[in-house]
Amino acid sequence: MESESELVPFPLLPTPIETNYRACTIPYRFPTDNPKKPTRTEIAWLDLFLNSIPSFKKRAESDPTVPDAHVRAEKFAQRYSEILEDMKKDPETHGGPPDCILLCRLREQVLRELGFRDIFKKVKDEENAKAISLFGDVVRLNDVIEDEGKRVESLIRGIFAGNIFDLGSAQLAEVFSKDGMSFLASCQNLVPRPWVIDDLETFKVKWSKKAWKKAVIFVDNSGADIILGILPFARELLRRGTQVILAANDLPSINDVTYPELIEIMSKLKDEKGQLMGVDTSKLLIANSGNDLPVIDLTAVSQELAYLASDADLVILEGMGRGIETNLYAQFKCDSLKIGMVKHPEVAQFLGGRLYDCVFKYNEVSS
């Protein structure tokens, strides 16, 4: 169900929000650029979204919930291609100039207008089932690490490994359609440190000294990402006495986990005592973020999340969409962590890193 209540600014953004917050990380254009002529960056990103159309069309064609899915998928491909080509001629068409939020918004709009609500549902369900079967093993592997610093690094590496499961990346969608990916192999095969943004050593020191009272985690993808990456990390925070709020999307978008799906996942992972592998979950809350895209503008979140998060002292934005393409440079009134894998060459180029490089950006706010 869609949220009916009005969206509000995330309460931990510094005020005034108008001058202190900009959602999109990569500037596609500058004030001096000709408003009627696309910039080189706009062209590159329009091409990136054009190149993703075949994988979205393929998913839409096989959606069993939509009558004439094959015909409608073709219409989606044509219509969205036309929108992007229009923007190449005149960036101010279709609500432009374009940025990553608008390009995602337009894609979802076209899909929904044609009756497609969740074209990645089948693959999400499959990956969730696989990841649930591996959850206990992953938790046990981390629990036997006695050194706290090494354990938190292992948990962070697990988040990166899980974040690879991203069907919004054309290259990764192709890999998954062929043979899937091994979570443990992904943990071992991360690009070597130092990563393109690497505050892990600082965070490990703070982890040993700080006790956060409440953490809000904006979660990303279904499958290994949420179940084998984020949940073992959230469980570790719970063990330390931190209250944890997991903020998930209101509506489906790519393979991002939604609020109802996350509730279902947790019901399958908790035991009859309501514990998560021996850890009490009474301080674990699942919130509807109010978002319906793979990126997020924090000036518009659900009132429920705003209420729950108002006194948090740690904000975590996970995934390339929420933590890199949007919000990488966002400041908060409390400590923050942006964590995600770079899965587009254009993002790697902007950051001066490598494809599949890792971003681990920690900002501490002095009390």
UniProtKB/TrEMBL annotation:
Biological process (GO), any one: coenzyme A biosynthetic process
GO cellular component terms given for this protein: cytosol; nucleus
InterPro entries (alphabetical): ARMT-1-like_metal-bd_sf, ARMT1-like_metal-bd, At2g17340, At2g17340_3_helix_bundle, Type_II_PanK
Manganese as UniProt keyword: yes
UniProt keyword Cytoplasm, yes or no: no
SUPFAM superfamilies in UniProt: AF1104-like
Keywords: Hydrolase, Manganese, Metal-binding, Nickel
Source domain of life: Eukaryota
Pfam families: ARMT1-like_dom (PF01937)
Requisite cofactors: Mn(2+); Ni(2+)
Residue stretches making up the Damage-control phosphatase ARMT1-like metal-binding domain: 52-359
GO molecular function, one term: ATP binding
PANTHER family tied to this protein: 4'-PHOSPHOPANTETHEINE PHOSPHATASE, PANTOTHENATE KINASE
Record's protein name: Damage-control phosphatase ARMT1-like metal-binding domain-containing protein
